[in-house]
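Feature request, filed as a ticket because there's no other form

It would be nice if the structure record came with a short human-readable summary line next to the tokens. Right now we just get the raw output. Example of a typical job, pasted below so the devs can see what we mean:
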Amino acid sequence: MASGYGRSGVSHGSDFERLIGPDRRRIPTPHGLALLVVIIALATVAGLIALYPRDLPDIDLTSFGFTGDVLPATVLKVATGPCSYSADLTCNYVQFEVEDETGSPTEVQEFPDEVGQPSLNIGDKVFMARTEADDGTFSYYYVDRDRSPLLIVLTVLFAVAVIGLARWRGVAALGGLVVSVLILVGFIVPAIIAGEDPVLVATVGGSAIVLVALYLAHGYNPLTHSAALGAFGALALTAFLSWAALEVARFTGVANEEASYLLLIPGFDISGLLLAGIVLGAIGALDDVTVTQASTVWELRDANPNFARHDLFASGLRVGRDHIASTVNTLLLAYAGAAMPLMILFTLSGQSLGTISSSEVVAVEITRTLVGSIGLVAAVPVTTWLAAREASTQPKVETTAPEDP
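Raw output as currently delivered:
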């Protein structure tokens, strides 16, 4: 039967290989790189245990408009009329039916008929915040639309697309994505809030994300070892460069309104949060680059088992140059897209490019892009060399033609 063979006709019997598809380049073989990965994994686990938040500060943000008591509601009625505070202005009066344990109370709220205000229709699903007065009565105010149905549909489409192309490997990758989110919201964010060093938290949490994402999606094998160690090396370089850049730039960390709220947390290191953000922002791209480089080298070796180590390294590095050229531009455009309103405001202000780029809110994003890109560039030769070293030491496998069914 031909179905039990990979492209080279070599049969693999492990459950994992049958799950993700047989592939000679992913034969698990003991090697020194595996020991380094195990050491890093143990250090990461120790860091997760030591830094895990056990007591979060109780910060009251209600005076800034934040509340945890948010309830679903439905728009019952919409009417237009003069505003209560000025008969010369027009307002939209919206009646909401709130879903809470007291029944279905209704609340009417007025919104000025102007740009930036919500445009609501009967039947729209929204969220309402509830506040309790001293006498025990409740009042409600509009928070935002309920967009969960759209997000669910997009998530399902995304999962179908990934699984449709990558099959069981796509399922494993989605599992790694879920675990990454859990590490972010269950460890990294709470640990930073609890007062732990943001850089250390981001490094430990980022290492855990790299380990889970890579090994869950690609398995425990020489290819993944090479990609993981390349990512760890580039991550360490990114963390160091970020620290050095922030020391020289002397960013305050409160260039935006959201960050200023964090000053309410006792002992919070706001500048360290910037560094942690740069480190975390580089992880996703590092995963992409390192896996691509390691996979390229193993494919080259699979296509020509006679390739020497330097041939594998040189060929893989040529692919890496093309990859880096496109990835760096991707990072720039991603940051530029997120900061487009700010870029428009600065352009309209008539300030010079030097003045605009030196402002903290812009300089932070420039620093983030450049430091992350340097880490990506460093990841290419390191990962390619490790993968070439591993691939060249694998025993040559004689290919045999599969039997006809």
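Something like this underneath would help us a lot:
Residues 1-30, 399-405 have pLDDT under 50 and may be disordered.
The beta strands are 70-83, 86-98, 106-112, 125-132, 138-145.
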